[in-house]
Each structure stands twice: as structure tokens, then as C-alpha cells.
Amino acid sequence: MQRRMARVYVLYTRDHESTLVRALQRLGVLHIEPVTELPTRALAPSRHELEGLLLKVRGLQEILAFTPSPLLPSPSEGRGAGGEGERRGEGPGVKVWLDPQEIHDLEERVRPLIAERRQVQERLDAATRLEEILQVTERLLSEISHPPGWELLVGLGGSEISSGEIVQFLQKNLPGRCVVRAHALPQERCALMVSVDSEYAPAVREYLEAKGIRPLAWPAHIPSDTPLPEAIALLKRDLAEGPARLREIERTLAELGHAHSPHLLALERALGNRIAQLDALAQFGYTDYTLVIAGWLPADEYEPFAQRLREQFPGIVVRPDPQPASSEEIPVALKNTNWSRPYELFLSIMGVPRYGTIDPVPFVSFFFPLFFGTIVGDIGYGAVIGLVGLWLRRRFAHAELAKNAGQIAMHCAISTIFFGAIFAELFGFILPYPHFKRGEQTNELLLFCVALGATQIFLGFVLGAINALRERHKKHALAKLAALGALVGLGLSVGALAGQLPEVFKTPSFALLAVAIVLLVMSEGPIGVLELVSYVGNILSYARLMGFGLVGLKIAELINEAGHALHNVFLAVLIGIVAHAANIGLAIFESTVQSARLHYVEFFQKFLELGGRKYEPFREI
Question: Which of 91, 100, 319, 411 has its CA 20 to 30 A from that of 11?
């Protein structure tokens, strides 16, 4: 649900602005708005310096593989009046840590380690790529004679190269002037080493290149004129010493991260808070001696907010604004129960509802697990989904998105187990007790799903009418109620004509349908009548709950039948686990997508009005 908001003004003397802005940040309830009626101040020049320092801090955290710990104190803890940081005006929690020299010193310790790590890694990667060629080259080097004044040429060829032909040609045309060795490499490549008299080396090099033999290229850190034995020795040393040196560097960085992580976390928070304070000061209005602050807060927070400020700042003026404001001006703050709050995720994808309209989150928190359970409807699948949700909540306790997803999964698991008990399904097996056979009683299941859809669609029209009345759009409210009446009248008429309802329903249902159509034409014109067809399609769209549920059931039954046909318990269990895990994953995906679609496409379009502004209180990080 939406919280009722109140606009307030705060007036105080300019010489206490730093203390006041810190107090507002600690209270953390005021959504600050710019005061356009009075002169404002430009952003403080120190903001750019603080932003640069904050970037350095975050860069160090990333380099040092920094992970915040929930046990680390927040900047607000241990805050004392008159601390060094506050005396210098750097904001709460900064204290002596706002010394750029300390960050500079830490950077100077980290920078050479990072440069060396990159250099060692590059050398190790290069040596690893050449490791196989090094082994072959070293072997060929031990087999070939290399008299003084001769040059060593090493080249690589592809599958189209005939090494035997090259060897025969060189030995035939340069007898006693060269020694040639070739060795096959994987992927139909070959390595060729030629020891040749320096006088003939240029001609041999040109001949090899003409035959497609590429000279062996050493990594950039090895000079091109390095003798072959020395180059091989350098690369072998990189292979031998590189991993150990990388581990040593990583250990040193980890030690630095462990030693400095509380410091960096506190500094990051303090810098972020101070930057936010400077941004807030730029939105205040100023006269010669006073400052004016305007903003919004939940109405039930006004009295504690005003009392705290009056206690801390004698003579301060805190007043609510009695003037009405449009719904576009007022920020929206949602207040939902612990059960409903995770479902705000569905609303955040679309935007913020306008102030004063109905919050759809409580309705999503009821219908989404209901739809999910109707589709999956298996006790075993529900238990597995519940365990996945519990794991997400515990494993990602500090990641809001994963935590909410885990909570929603647990809700869906409860619904899935409930419907699984009704359907008597356990991993595709039908349990032997009286139950609803959804694989056979398809007509009843279809009626249930359509009725469930009609309930949600009717609720959507009622909520749409309420929203319209709140915004004083009586004609729009009449259209919503007329569409609802037309759908009810149409449904009763069809039921009476089909003999599913008593004869007595005929006349009232026809009368209701006629009156609703007249009202619909009056409020929306002929297009309103044409839209009735789409509304009927919206309701019938909920039949997908049955369709996807039956598909999942048949897949589970086929998995069990395939395992039974193997006549091997171990193999049947193994295949069953893998196949059912895949079917559970498919069920989670399809159920989530289809349940969300019914809300976004069928339900929300009947009443949800977006375009609101999110309530973003000025608070500490």
C-alpha cells in the first residue's frame, strides 16, 4: 500500500547548515526537493576532489578483492560530537581517514604489485602457448649440430607443408653447409629447425618463407636477437616460476585487503555520505541569514522528525505545507507486509504508480503464488523449489534481489505443495488417496482456471474504478463498472442459455448486459463495446494455467515410465533425478513467465496507473 505523504519546510540559520544537513541525513526520512523560489548555492568545489578520492577507494576495494562484512561497523557507529572529521567539516564517520595521503600511500604499495602481476601473467600465458613448441625445439636443438659462424633458423608450418620435401631440397643443394631437422606437431603442423652457414642463411630464410614456413615469433619481452638456447631458458623459467610468483602476489594483495578493508569500507561510506550532503546543500534555498529546506516525508513520520530537529536545534522552524499538491509532484512510498514486500520486484520493472492510486503489490503477492502452484501442482517439485528458495535466502542474504527471489520461491513452493496435495502428485506419481485427477478431469480444471482469471479481471475493473473515483474521473469509473457489469451479464447469460444455470437467471442477466452496454457506450463510445471481446479473451487466456500444468504432468509421467522400462534400479534412479531436475527447471521458468504475463498483460492494464515519482529519502549509506 502507499503511505500518505506530507510536504514540510524547515527554516534555520545559515551558520549551522553543515550540522543541520548531517542531522537530516542521520534521520533519513526527508525526500529533499529544490527550493526554486529562493537563490541556491553552487556545488562545492571540494565535491570533485571527494569524488576522485571515492573512485580511488572503490578501485582499491576491487583490486584487493574486497568483500564487505556484515560485522563491520557502519559510519554512524562510534560517532562522537566534535570528532576530528566533523571539526574539519568532512562529515560523519570520516575522522582522520579523510587523508588523501593515506590512500596515495596504499596506491603506491598496490600499483607495483598489479603491474608485476600483469607482467608475470602475460609472460606465463605466452610461455604456456609455446610450451609444446618449446619441448620440440629443445629436442631438435639437442639433435642438431651448430658450428661457430652458423645460424639457427626455427619455423612452423601448417598441414599443407611437406617437411620431407624441404629437408631433401636443403640437404641436396647445401651439402655440408646446413643441417635440417623436422618434427610433427598436433593438428597436422610441423616444426622445422635449420642450422646453416651464415653466408647462406638469408637465402634459406627466403626459401622457407616461400614454402610457407613462418619464423618462430618469441613473446615481446624476449629481444629478437636473443640466442635460441637463452630464449628457451627464459620461457622455461617463466613456466616454472610464474605460478608461484602469481600466488605470492595474490597472497600479498589479500593480506593488504584484509588489513585495510574496514578502513576502506568506512571511508567509502563516509565519502558517499559527504558527497550526498553537498548535493543536498545545493538544493536548499538561501537568504542573507537563513536557509530554507523543502521536502516530502510520510505523514506518520512528521511528528518524530519535527521533534528530533527541535530538540537538537533550538529555534528551528519545521512546518507542514497546507497547500494541496498534484499527484505528479508527490513522491510515492510503499509500505507492504513482509509477505508482500518481495513482490515489489514485479512493479519495479514497470515503474512507480502515481500517488494516490492503488498499489498492486499485495494482489500480486496473493495471485502469483496461486497461479504458480496451479501450474506445477506437485508435492515433490514444491519441496525442491522450497529448498532452492531457502538456499537463495541464506546464500545471498546481503543481495536484495536474490533474497527477494528466494522468498518468492518459498511462497510458490507452499502453493505448489498445496495443489500437489489436492492433485495427489509426487514427482509425477499419483498417490493412492481420494483426490482431484487433473489429468482426467480437464473440464473441471479448465472451469477453475477460467473462473480464477475472471476473478482477477473483475478485481482489476473494481480497482480501476476506485482509482478513477479517487482522481475524480467519474466517467472513467463508470466505464470500468460498466465493463465489469457487461462481463458478468455476458457470463450469466451464456451459463443460462447453455443450461448450466437455472432458467431464472436469463432475464436478469440479459437486462444487466443491456444496461451495461448502454452505460459503456455512454462513457467510452462504441469502442467500449468492441473492447468487450478483448476482455473475454483476457479471461480465456487464464486457460494457460491448465495447459502448462498438464504438459508438466505428462513429462513427469513419461520420465517415470522411461525409468520403469529400464529394469535397472540404479540407472532408473539416476536418469529420474536428472530428468526430473530438468523438468523442475522448465516448470519454474514456464510458471514464472506465464504467471507474470497474466499480471502484466491481463491484470495491470485494468487499473494500474504509472508515472509516479519514487520516494528517495536523504539518508546515510
Answer: 91
Q: CATH number, domain at 191?
A: 3.30.70.2750
Dist CA 352 CA 361 (whole Å): 11
Phi, psi (deg, nearest 5) at residue 509: -70, -40
CB-CB neighbours of 19 under 10 Å: 15
Q: Three cell numbers at 421?
A: 496435495
Nearest CA-CA partner of 587 in 384, 308, 434? 384
Number of independent structural domains in the chain: 2
Per residue in 374-403, pLDDT tens? 999 999 999 999 999 999 998 888 888 899
Question: At 212, is the pLDDT very low, low, confident or very high (cuts 50, 70, 90)?
Answer: confident
- Examine the domain organization and report whether 353 and 206 are in the same domain: no
**Contact residues for 380 (Cβ-Cβ < 8 A; gap 6+):** 420, 425, 426, 427, 580
The b-or-e profile of 540-556 (16+ CB within 10 A means b, else e) is ebbebbbebbbebbebb
User: Of 185, 218, 251, which closes a domain?
Assistant: 218
C-alpha cell at position 234 = 627464459
Instruction: List % helix, strand, coil for the chain (3-state, nearest 5).
Output: 65, 10, 25
Distance separating alpha carbons of residues 44 and 115, to the nearest angstrom: 35
CA distances, 318 to each of 299, 303, 310, 365 (Å): 14, 10, 8, 38
Strand pairing partners for 197? 150
- Could you tell me the pLDDT band of residue 453, with boundaries at 50, 70 and 90? very high
Helix (H, G, I), strand (E, B) or coil at 10: strand
Has residue 256 been placed in a domain? no
Alpha-carbon separation of residue 515 from 23, 177, 256, 440, 484 (angstroms): 60, 110, 77, 40, 12
One-letter amino acid of 372 = F
pLDDT at position 77 is: 41
What residues contact residue 208 under an 8 Å CB cut-off, 6+ apart? 153, 155, 166, 192, 194, 215
Residue 138 CA to residue 147 CA, distance in Å, equals 17
Question: Between β-strands 613-614 and 331-332, what pairing exists: parallel, antiparallel or unpaired?
Answer: parallel
Neighbours of 379 (CB within 10 A): 19
What is the C-alpha separation between 31 and 6, in angstroms, rounded? 10
Cα end-to-end distance, the chain, whole Å: 25
Residue type present at position 263: H
Q: Inform me whether the pLDDT recorded for 228 exceeds 70.
A: yes
* Number of alpha carbons in the 13 Å side-chain half-sphere of residue 463: 21
Q: Do 90 and 98 touch, CB atoms closer than 8 A?
A: yes
Quick one: pLDDT band at residue 159, thresholds 50, 70, 90? low
Angle at 282 between CA 278 and CA 284, to 5 degrees: 115
> Domain ends where: 201, 218, 235?
218
Angstrom distances, CA of residue 476 to CA of 328, 464, 512, 608: 19, 9, 19, 13
Containing structural domain, residue 206:
131-218
Beta bridge partners of 194: 153, 180
35-39: which pairs have CB atoms within 8 A and are 24 or more residues apart?
35/283, 35/284, 35/285, 35/292, 35/293, 35/294, 36/285, 37/285, 38/285, 38/286, 38/287, 38/292, 39/285, 39/286, 39/287
